[in-house]
């Protein structure tokens, strides 16, 4: 829960409940069942919440994201264009099967045609999430989209970003890049194979520890490419070596995506980058991204003047999407 406080925000209450097992994006029913079990674990200690109003942001594995060019005569009928796009890729063309959001964000420079992004999830997914929350006393008021939550989080940053910002949400299962300007998402891409899961699993095998402990070690010791510090002990040298190949692959994808934006959508080129998620909390990641992209980069921090105590450095970027969703209403969970 978050509340507005003057020009900033304050966190009323927060609880992080990790999934018992990683979500399986290829198995929708299993993913939904896991989310339901996690909701139950969050609800079980007290049997109630501090409010009965709730908002939810779906994981990337439960949504479809596409970028499409818009014929001049069809801009008012983007829903149908979105359904046609989903039909060609996913196989369902029935409008009632989908919940669709879309937004225009500029012109594809070589083709000189208007462009839009579409974000969709099936009606059955939305109904299942709403039913799971209602079962536990929560009234689902908003089903938010990841790019919109990121855009809102950018506006809640402790510094006024100004201009176009590339918001990079480096999550466990995937990495999302959204170019944000004036509080609205623009070009957005989800990289499904660049989540921190691969990094944590590699560290777990090499160090011989459970995933939770390996994650904490990465946050403390990981020296990613571009970090100005150098390994000073055996642990730092070992963790740095483990990180190198996996992080380089993800940084290459970020670089390639932003170069594509520069060629195709020059008005979307970011002036700076904000990092979110567990990947954004890894020590030195801001330096690594800045070094790779040649764009000023920093880790997101909530604007919370006078908040005592402020959220710790690691939890802030990890909780950013949840904070941004909760900001839709002062008493929404």
Quick summary of this structure?
It contains 10 helices and 12 strands. With 333 residues, it is an alpha/beta fold. A 5-stranded mixed beta sheet has the order 10-9-8-11-12, with helices on both faces. A 3-stranded antiparallel beta sheet has the order 4-6-5. The protein has a two-stranded antiparallel ribbon with strand order 1-2.
- State the share of residues found in helices, binned by percent: 25-40%
> Assembly type of the shown chains?
single chain
Strand content: 15-25%
Radius of gyration: 20 Å
> Unreliable segments (pLDDT under 50, ≥5 consecutive)?
none
Main sheet, how many strands, which sense, barrel?
Answer: 5 strands, mixed
What structural class should be given to the helix and strand makeup?
A: alpha/beta
Number of strands: 12
Can you give the mean pLDDT? 80
Name the strands of the widest sheet in spatial order: 10-9-8-11-12
Provide a descriptive summary of the structure in words.
The protein is an alpha/beta fold and 333 residues long. 39% of the residues lie in helices and 23% in strands. It is built from 10 helices and 12 strands. It has helices at residues 28-43, 78-89, 123-135, 146-155, 196-207, 211-221, 234-264, 277-280, 285-293, 315-326, and strands at 2-5, 8-11, 53-57, 64-69, 98-108, 113-122, 139-144, 165-170, 175-181, 184-191, 272-276, 297-299. A 5-stranded mixed beta sheet has the order 10-9-8-11-12, sandwiched between helices. Strands 4-6-5 form a 3-stranded antiparallel beta sheet. Helix 5 (196-207) packs across helix 6 (211-221) and helix 5 (196-207) runs antiparallel to helix 7. It is globular. The mean pLDDT is 80.
